[in-house]
Amino acid sequence: MRILVTGAAGYIGSSLTRALLARGEVLAVDQSQPGAGTPLVGNLAYPQFARSLITPEVSAVFHLASLVSGGAEQNFELGTKVNLDATRDLLEACRLAGHRPKFVFASSIAVYGAHFPNVLPDPVTDETAAAPRLSYGAQKLVCEILIADYTRRGYLDGRALRLPTVMVRPGAANTAVSGWASAIIREPLAGRDYVCPVRPETRMACISLGRVVEAFMHAADAGVKGSVLLPGISVNAGEMWSAVKGRAKGKVSFAPDDRLQAIMDAVAKTTVSKRAAELGFRGNASIEEIVHEYEEEAAVTNHG
Question: What is the pTM of this model?
């Protein structure tokens, strides 16, 4: 059995790839060298490369590669190529392969957001209508619809997970508009001061990396159909800082950026899914649990 993971060098992709190695050969695809699995470096924005990835040996596809929210908003053409066109190329490759592989897609709660007057219900639930406010969310939603249609036609066995903000991202920040939520924990713990670009009371729906990796594997195993909203606990920036303040060597100050603040004011504050719970997906109990998981993983990484 061969498992294909796109975005395998990324934050979620690298952890998922390591977890999947026990199940068989993992073809780890990214623009940079993946750290685990059988590495294949290439750009999914090129259709020929994307369509070459689905061979008869590939029984499951975990499609995580994307240009995240801020990047997709700043560069519409590139976001469309990476987030939409490359996904369709992979779907077409599955159709032409003819053996109906499993297809697990990393979607996002960015599919919500454009509710009048730009305020989402709290919590966002299974009944909340998708109405993207950013190009990234629109691209993710279109991909969900395409995956559902390819599944209906019998070309693949697809499902999508709508991810809350995944924390705590190590290393340098990416272009995600929610990147501050990891930085406000990561930077002071590393002894660096951090200026948070949103107000302390700014809330968002959060989930840990471990829970997300678990969710991807469960989605493939449990026969999940359609799109599933993962549970995200509500945490504000002040609470994130408080969770590490007592042992942090760096300091946090707040200097809100008006543009980013406007975006964050409109995002989902909490996500609650009865369907996800019934299917066996799990969320986190607290921000302290999320931080503890990050610190444990960092300790393991630093020791070898």
Answer: 0.94
